[in-house]
Design a protein that fits this description.
Elements lengths: L1 E5 L9 H11 L5 E2 L13 H13 L6 E6 L1 H12 L4 E7 L9 H5 L1 H10 L1 E6 L4 E6 L1 H6 L13 E6 L7 H9 L4 E6 L9 H11 L4
Parallel strand pairs: 1-2, 1-3, 3-4, 4-7, 7-8
Antiparallel strand pairs: 5-6
Length: 213
């Protein structure tokens, strides 16, 4: 099985979670592929670009089962890729999936900040991968309008981990997403959006889900 880790918004392929999973998978002889969605630059990021990059990477792999581990916005990319490439993607692990993207942008940013983004065409956001603020084009939001994770037809087995103290993704929305899908197993954790404190627990379930143990 081939595994991909899809990092979240304003994160990177060298994130703590990516490194954590890569180290443990390496012990099982599995290499974790981590595409960098910041390339070629962060300001021009769109979901379409993320999906095209992932599809191109998958196309280079000989036919075999593929599992996607997606965090936040990366989880949304995993959902859409699984729907589009059902013949290639075997199963999904979603960490704090931002399934409301981009419908909740105005709520997350606040009305004034969202309208300023709309007016000016760019928005300065803190990029955790770079450790500083970076501009993001309004095209990110406009492009995202064509994608609805809640409507995507995904039949593969899905394992979801969601923190109850997540301030970026409402755990109740994720609960509703899981409740209507028999192929989804949801674990709610006493943790925040990063889920760093819960990684040992998450790994135990992921290893079993991936049939590594």
């Amino acid at each position: 099985m081939q595994l991909f880790y899809l990092h979240g918004f304003a994160s990177s392929a060298q994130s703590k979670k990516a490194a954590y999973f890569a180290e443990r998978l390496r012990a099982h002889g599995v290499t974790l592929r981590c595409p960098d969605f910041n390339e070629p630059d962060f300001p021009s990021l769109t979901m379409t670009r993320m999906l095209d990059r992932l599809a191109a990477d998958i196309a280079t792999i000989a036919p075999q089962p593929i599992a996607l581990i997606g965090s936040s916005l990366g989880a949304v990319a995993a959902i859409h890729t699984a729907a589009r490439m059902a013949d290639r993607v075997d199963r999904l692990v979603l960490l704090a999936p931002a399934v409301m993207f981009p419908k909740d942008a105005e709520k997350v940013l606040g009305v004034d900040r969202f309208r300023a983004w709309q007016r000016d065409g760019t928005l300065d956001v803190f990029h955790f991968g770079y450790g500083s603020k970076r501009p993001l084009n309004y095209a990110f939001y406009e492009d995202g309008q064509q994608y609805d994770a809640l409507a995507a037809d995904v039949r593969q087995p899905i394992l979801i981990f969601q923190g109850r103290r997540d301030e970026a993704v409402d755990y109740r929305v994720v609960e509703q997403y899981a409740a209507t899908r028999p192929n989804v197993t949801l674990t709610l954790l006493d943790d925040d959006h990063q889920l760093i404190a819960s990684l040992p627990r998450i790994w135990t379930d992921v290893a079993a889900f991936l049939e590594l143990t």
